[in-house]
Design brief:
Largest sheet: 7 strands, mixed
Strand content: 5-15%
Strand order of the largest sheet: 4-3-2-5-6-9-7
CATH class of the largest domain: Alpha Beta
CATH topology of the largest domain: Rossmann fold
CATH superfamily of the largest domain: Vaccinia Virus protein VP39
Helix content: 40-55%
CATH architecture of the largest domain: 3-Layer(aba) Sandwich
Mean pLDDT: 82
Low-confidence stretches: 1-19, 21-34, 71-85, 372-378, 488-496
Order of helices and strands: HHHHHHHHEHEHEHEHEHEHHEEEHHHH
Number of domains: 3
Length: 496
Amino acid sequence: MLRQLSRPCTSVPRAVSASRLASTSTAAALAPEADAKPKRRARRTPEEMEVERQRRADSRAAREAARAMKARTSYSGSTAIWGSTLANLSEEVQHKVVTLRFKEVADGKASMEQYLEELMKIQRPPIPEEVPLPESMARFPLLPPLRFWDDLFWRASTVAQRERIAVHNPETALAMAHAFLDSDATRSTGPKTVIEAFPGPGMLSRALLTLPEDKLGRLIILEDDARFLPFLEPLAKADPRVTVLPMSGFDWATYTHMDDKVLTDIPKLPFDAGLHPNLHFISHIFMTAQHEQFVSQLHRCIPQKSWLFQYGRVPMSLIMGEWGFKRLTAGENDMERCKHSVISQISAQTDLAIPMEATAPFTSHFHPVKVQHLAIERRAVSRRIGSPYLAVNVVPHTEQLILPNELEAWDFVIRKLFVQKRTPIRQSIGSIAPGAEYLLKYANQNASEDKQIDAAKSPPEITNDEWARLIREFINWPFAPEDLSVDAFMRYDEKD
């Protein structure tokens, strides 16, 4: 029986083989003659083979460097790993090793001083935008050379973090520092407490610290991005004027915390007492909708005397895109004029702190510097990273036409009319409320002939003085709606 079971069975395999052969023959007969022969794999060129060999060599070297650095528990001893291992690696592999080592610094496992020392051993030539550090800034903890900023701040970031913009040119930063705190518009008698939001790695922070103590009394840095904190926290050890708060400049709780813990010695002054001598706000503003709303909210706080303006006429200095600046300062008939333009101009005076040419082109003064790093192409050209960036000073007016309890009414009227931006107000004013056409008549009753509001004007053509008179009549109008909230449809009012 065992012998019989072990005997090979030839009939079934033959049948199967025959059927397979038949099906294969049929398929071969039906298939085109060109497809019957298998395609031969194209031979790689010597150049392609060399690229592949280099890629594998780089990969092996990177793994060896990573293993070697992981084995080191401290910075004591030789730093030959960086000098020899990284010298001839591709930029892509260098990036991986540089960021791996920086993570050790961020985690507190290594010192920043030795990290920067080792970083310089990488044989990567300076880029054209790199500017030597002035002598006045040499006493502060060093920043990595600009050629490594992409490795540390851009390529190691998330998509949202790549919207971050920061001054990289030390000479530009020094010019901004003096223009922000020591210009005719912002100069004060006493030392200032400066709140700096979104400083990035801190080139502007270092420039501000070059100012004497009678100009800069304290520098409070707001930064919650872990990529930048290792370059900001050493400033607090180098200069007693510095306080680094790992908190977001967007979060209103941050400013509440400062009111209770940090700004307790700042006096609260009335607006007619002049520019506040001891408080100043500075911030980078990015090309995002969130930052546009942030700037708008800051201007809305001025007439309400809330936020930092509870302390008085606190000046602001903003580093922002040209497109945002045009929205702040757009006059009648300007394409950029919107609700934000009206509110900001009635609340404050906004001017360039340094000439526009002093911050052009973008890549010579701001990071990121590589063309391929510029923002999403679907965004309008004027709102992409890489479009012109400016430094501006914002000084609140002494007299505020918008009273603290009237901001909601201003919002309501301007928003309603700007929904129909190109429509004459004689046609669009009825959208405010039934009978609102009479508001134009009331606003013109006691006005001289040259001050009459032309009903044929569209909202962008109305002057700030005319807006003030029209909205004053709305506030006093007995038939004004009680509910001044704006529905979801109205939130699309300013899509220019």
